Amino acid sequence: MAEVPTAKLNNDKEMPMLGFGVFQMSNEEAEASVQSAIEVGYRSIDTATSYGNEEAVGRAIAKSGVPREELFITSKLWIADAGEEKAKEAVQRSLDKLGLDYLDLYLLHQPFGDVFGAWRGLEAMYDVGKLKAIGISNFNTVQTYDLYYNARIKPMVNQIETHPFNQQTEAHKFLKELGIVHEGWAPFAEGQHDIFSNEVLGEIAEKHGKTIGQVILRWNVQRGIVAIPKSVKKERMEENFDVFDFELTDDDMQGIASLDQGFKTVDHNDPEFLKYLYGRTL
Predict the structure, then answer these.
(1) Residue 4 Cα distances to 14, 107, 161, 265, 281, angstroms
(2) What are the residue ranges spanned by the domains of the chain?
(3) d(CA 115, CA 208)
């Protein structure tokens, strides 16, 4: 089994550079997929309160037989629970659903609502060991710095949309300066813009005897970005995991850099999207 490199968080905790996501999976899919992912070799699993599948992920973890200390489990706080006391209660609910005593990483899922109250709640749960690392998700650079400047415990991770069509170059540089690990969701741009038939990526893949998906994940790793691909197919999980036996050249990296167009699968600055978030009940 390949040894997955790690990113060191600002509290010295090690986080695998490649994880497995369960966004938009039903409970049945999530349980089966996480079981398969762990069998393949994934040790980092990413879920969230809003995904509605924490219990299924917990069942898969329990069935895996892998020692808890070898796993890195992430979940996230929904905006309805943004507030100091509500956040602490939400963390405990996630732990109960997952059947765990602690989470390796817990994120504020969205930069909305009582962010500062919620962050104090996460800090409190970090203090008592229920959370081993805390971070944010979908925060832009201004929102990130505002929290960073005011927080007692600095954010350790920011999970943001990152793929060849939205490379987050400036955000990556900014996060690095603050000592915050950049984690990318939607590494394959949710399959949009014909990413799996892109000519530039295809030529690089052919040169290395790899698939376009493998090239994209390798590109993330070489940039120092944690990637969390998702799939319900075991053969695709195996393919996505097989990215540590080759290296992209400088020319390859420059070729991929040319694809950046700032394309977002989700626009967090769209008022209609914000209305959707606040109107969503779990």
Answers:
(1) 11, 22, 22, 28, 37
(2) 14-279
(3) 44
d(CA 45, CA 138): 18
232: exposed, middle or buried (Cβ count in 10 Å: 0-12, 13-18, 19+): middle
Distances (CA, A) of 51 to 176, 252, 257, 271: 29, 35, 32, 22
Largest pairwise CA distance in the chain = 54
Look at residue 1 and tell me whether its pLDDT is greater than 80.
no
Condensed to tens digits (0 to 9), the pLDDT of residues 69-99 reads: 999 999 999 999 999 999 999 999 999 999 9
Q: Which amino acid is at 164?
A: P
* CATH class of domain segment(s) 14-279: alpha beta
Q: Is 51 a catalytic residue?
A: yes
| Catalytic pick among 51, 106, 149, 278 | 51
Distance CA 77, CA 118 (A): 9
pLDDT value, residue 282: 79
Q: Mean pLDDT of all residues in the chain?
A: 97
